[in-house]
Amino acid sequence: MSVIDFPTTHHQGFSVFPIAAFNDNYIWCIQTDGSQRGWVIDPGDAAAVIECFQQRQLLLAGILITHHHRDHTGGIADLLQHYGDAVPVYGPLNPSIPEINHTLISETELRLKGVDGEVLHAGIFCVPGHTLDHIAYLIGNALFCGDALFSAGCGRLFEGTPLQLYQSLTKFARLPESTLVYPAHEYTLSNLKFARTVEPDNQAIVDYMREATHLRQQQLPTLPSSIKRELVINPFLHCTDERLTTILSQHSQQIADSAVTRLKLLRQWKDNF
Ligand SMILES: [Zn+2]
């Protein structure tokens, strides 16, 4: 297995780079400036993290988990075995993730403490919908949103209600436009195909599709995105205004007369797209 060296994104005081896992997962890594330790978010695959960290001569500072799905949590146990039990694991309250030793149960701002005095300042958001336990981390202006928000899309409704998903997406939409968005999957191109169908007159979707296609042809990530971009091209963030009413009503043969109903119908359409 060889680790592809993806581009690093620089933020104030830290940088972020992805490790590819499985077919289309990204395990995002945060390295604070000058540190020889890195944090990983949603390590579904321990071997990919260990190999990348060996190449970069990094040790593990801590683990952040967004929700309970196996492709986000499956590597935790092996990482703790490899790097030692002193590594903190932050995540939601869920008995199905027994390795979590720092439970985050409410929306708050806090200092995440890692190994060797490593500290990350994080805002925690509870964003149920895809799953009920889903949380997101805002670190500086970097949003790690797991499967709650994708570029040009959002996660399937496995456990939550359309209202919960709507409220969660609204939290993201209210973040500063300069916030960079780090979802856990490379779904951008397939999401854009759906977005183009829903909003055929949205030129920004067509332009972004061209840009994303070019990046994928070079096997580069389309991520991070930004809140500024998502507000323009992500139809799941467009349910508050009525531009989607006609097409959704036509497609579903139901009356798409509220934002939550529009989101529900949009999600159902995408599930079968
Ligand atoms: Zn998931």
UniProtKB/TrEMBL annotation:
Q: How is the cofactor bound?
A: Binds 2 Zn(2+) ions per subunit.
* Pfam families registered for this protein in UniProt: HAGH_C, Lactamase_B
Q: Does the keyword Zinc apply?
A: yes
Residues that bind Zn(2+) 1: H67, H69, H130, D147
Name the EC number(s).
3.1.2.6
Enumerate the UniProt keywords alphabetically: Hydrolase, Metal-binding, Zinc
Quaternary assembly: Monomer.
Family, according to the entry, reads as follows: Belongs to the metallo-beta-lactamase superfamily. Glyoxalase II family.
Could you tell me what this protein is called? Hydroxyacylglutathione hydrolase
Please give the organism: Shewanella yunxiaonensis
List the top taxonomic levels of the source: Bacteria, Pseudomonadati, Pseudomonadota, Gammaproteobacteria, Alteromonadales
**Gene name of this polypeptide:** gloB
